Amino acid sequence: MSSKLITLDGPSGVGKTTIGKKLASDLNLDFISSGMIYRAIAAHFNKKGVSTINEINITSKNPIIYKIDGETYQEDELYSPEINKKSSEIAQLLEIRNIVSNILRFLYNSSANGLVVEGRDMGSVVFQDADLKIYLDASEATRSKRRLAQSGSKESIEDIRTRDSRDINRKISPLVVPINALVINNEDMTIEEIIKLIKENLKLQ
Ligand code: DC
Predict the structure, then answer these.
(1) Are 78 and 36 in contact (CB under 8 A)?
(2) How many CB atoms within 10 Å of residue 174?
(3) Does residue 172 have a pLDDT over 80?
(4) Which residue's CA is the nearest one to ligand 1's atom 12?
(5) 3-state SS class at 196
(6) Is residue 173 within 8 Å of 97, Cβ to Cβ?
(7) Ligand 1, atom nearest to 38 Cα
(8) Atom nearest to 9 CA in ligand 1
(9) Which one, of 121, 109, 39, lies nearest residue 81 by Cα?
(10) Which residues partner with 72 through β-bridges?
(11) Is ligand 1 within 6 A of the CB of residue 39?
(12) Ligand 1, atom nearest to 122 Cα
């Protein structure tokens, strides 16, 4: 692996996407949300009533558009309660995890600048050799509050609990703290403080 790679893992609503996007923009790296790829696949399965895919492409960067077997999906349509649930369910399947992992490795290998990538198994499984591995955590109540503040998301504390439990207890690639990860409990931290701490640790690598 040559270009810079930073992984961000953690449960839902902990701020992985917000922090990842800001970090990537500050460091001039690309940003990818693996959760969004699971969400796009879930949306496709719900829309078409299928459970397999043949081809998936990311066709535009800003905004990111996912094209799956001829259908296109945009990020702002991927936060419905049905997709929250379905994405966590299909993420239990080895075939789906392999598809997503392969896309992510391809995107990293074709990224000129390097990558910030967020998810549940980025540092623990997909990119074990990342330059810096971060695990973000915060209480359920705080994460639920953050999710509700996010536009378009209506995920209650009960929904978050169910999804976290499924993501933590699944057999394949469960959510864990990756080996050698920097753990940041960001309960009482501002985004600027979190970014500063990550940058300081990046300098130590
Ligand atoms: O981060 P998110 O809420 O957008 O992710 C949606 C679902 O996708 C999450 O409940 C579990 C799954 N997921 C996963 O299993 N592994 C990842 N690396 C990212 C997401």
Answers:
(1) yes
(2) 15
(3) yes
(4) 88
(5) helix
(6) yes
(7) 8
(8) 18
(9) 39
(10) 67
(11) yes
(12) 18
Contact by Cβ (8 Å): 3, 113: yes
Judge contact between 88 and 39, C-beta under 8 A.
Answer: no
Q: What is the DSSP letter of 2?
A: -
Sign of CA dihedral 162, 155, 137, 141: negative
70 Cβ partners below 8 Å, 6+ apart?
Answer: none
Tokens of 149: 């503040």
Antiparallel, parallel or unpaired: β 56-61 and 30-33: unpaired
Nearest CA to ligand 1 atom 13: 35
Mean pLDDT, the chain, rounded, equals: 93
pTM passes above 0.85 = yes
User: 142-155, pLDDT tens digit by residue?
Assistant: 998 888 887 566 77
Pocket test for ligand 1, best of 87, 94, 162 (most atoms within 8 A of CB): 87
Tell me, using a 6 A CB cutoff, whether residue 73 lines ligand 1: no
Paired tokens of 40: 């796009």
| Tens-place pLDDT, residues 8-41 | 999 999 999 999 999 999 999 999 999 999 999 9
Q: How many A from CA of 127 to the centre of ligand 1?
A: 16
Of the candidates 179, 178, 184, which has an alpha carbon nearest to the alpha carbon of residue 200?
Answer: 184
pLDDT at 169: 96
Cα 124 to its chain centre, rounded Å, is 13
